[in-house]
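Need residues for this backbone.
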């Protein structure tokens, strides 16, 4: 669900129930799960005053972390020190609805190269907006991003500032993957000659890896790694199975957690568990499960508006082992999923009483959980079990 939409649960549930009675796209039952035992948590506010923070990347050797603000600023945070001024050298962004500065990720060889990758929306020389990806070199003092180079520009220009994706992750071979939303051009998510509604895979310099799944298919975009993805909000490798997991906004209902594999079709918009914002069926939908299309490993009938996610793989808090933490924007909560192999076994909610939109989730090098809240007075919160 787009992060700009907020509704009370009662009309949402009524419309969704009406849809469930009328539409075959909600026919399959929710994956079996049981509540994860509640664990009381300590919440410590590390930062306030962030302008819609979007992403967090920890620097090595206790150098702090880089934080993006959707408004276009990249900041350096070091515990016990004031938040830095905006880091110079960051490209100008197009700020509109969900568009702006998105993800920040460090190159796998950052300790040597100090290369920092950013995803963002920007206007070209004609004034047309595009989703873009690039990198620069972080200065030794962490206050300048030098020699920024754009290595990917989504074509054609964006139709609007919604359903844009923007998440990044490096694969084990050092290639970079980027999520691209359908930009409300629903059926293009199924079209291999379009980059809308895809996860793409590029070399660190923006080239096409030779083993991308559609490199040799005539008429297909060679950047494509997966398709049929509506609006992917997080990408992360499962540290135990090494699979690539993704969270994805559904429309009204049908937020998903998927395991992504090269060349696979994840269904949108012909296979979905959601309905349109009007309460009517998605026009292209033909069911919730279709042959040749991948089912989610987990989904929600009522969209929490899932966002960033992180697998917990630290020895700091054993009670959190085998957990996947997922932020929620609309339902202003942090969701804990109990993961076993390639299945989600149960679900727990935390931070509900704070009423804060959770945008980003990361596990710090100290084993604590860190989240960013998507607010005009955004916060960085440090979380641990009591």
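Answer:
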């Amino acid at each position: 669900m787009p992060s700009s939409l907020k509704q009370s649960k009662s009309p949402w549930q009524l419309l969704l129930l009406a849809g469930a009675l009328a539409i075959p796209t909600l026919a399959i039952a929710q994956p079996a799960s049981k509540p994860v035992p509640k664990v009381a948590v300590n919440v410590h506010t590390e930062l306030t005053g962030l302008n819609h923070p979007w992403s967090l990347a920890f620097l090595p050797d206790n150098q702090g972390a880089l934080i993006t603000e959707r408004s276009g600023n990249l900041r350096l945070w070091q515990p016990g020190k004031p938040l830095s001024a905006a880091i110079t050298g960051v490209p100008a962004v197009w700020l509109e609805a969900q568009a702006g500065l998105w993800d920040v990720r460090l190159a796998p060889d950052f300790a040597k190269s100090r290369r920092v990758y950013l995803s963002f929306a920007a206007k070209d020389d004609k004034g047309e907006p595009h989703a873009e990806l690039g990198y620069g070199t972080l200065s030794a003092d962490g206050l300048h991003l030098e020699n920024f180079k754009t290595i990917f520009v989504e074509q054609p220009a964006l139709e609007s500032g919604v359903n844009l994706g923007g998440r990044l992750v490096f694969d084990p071979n050092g290639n970079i993957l980027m999520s691209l939303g359908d930009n409300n051009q629903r059926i293009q998510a199924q079209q291999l000659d379009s980059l809308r509604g895809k996860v793409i895979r590029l070399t660190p310099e923006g080239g096409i890896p030779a083993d991308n799944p559609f490199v040799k298919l005539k008429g297909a975009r060679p950047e494509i790694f997966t398709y049929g993805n509506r609006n992917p909000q997080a990408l992360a490798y499962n540290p135990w199975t090494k699979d690539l997991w993704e969270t994805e906004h559904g429309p009204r209902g049908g937020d998903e957690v998927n395991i992504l594999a090269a060349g696979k079709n994840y269904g949108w918009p012909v296979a979905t568990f959601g309905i349109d914002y009007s309460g009517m069926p998605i026009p292209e939908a033909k069911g919730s499960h279709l042959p040749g299309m991948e089912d989610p490993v987990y989904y929600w009938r009522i969209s929490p508006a899932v966002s960033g996610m992180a697998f917990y793989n630290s020895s700091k808090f054993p009670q959190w082992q085998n957990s996947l933490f997922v932020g929620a924007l609309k339902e202003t909560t942090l969701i804990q999923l109990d993961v076993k192999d390639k299945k989600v076994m149960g679900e727990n909610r935390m931070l509900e009483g704070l009423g804060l939109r959770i945008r980003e989730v990361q596990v710090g090098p100290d084993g604590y959980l860190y989240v960013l809240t998507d607010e005009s007075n955004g916060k960085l919160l440090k979380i641990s079990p009591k």
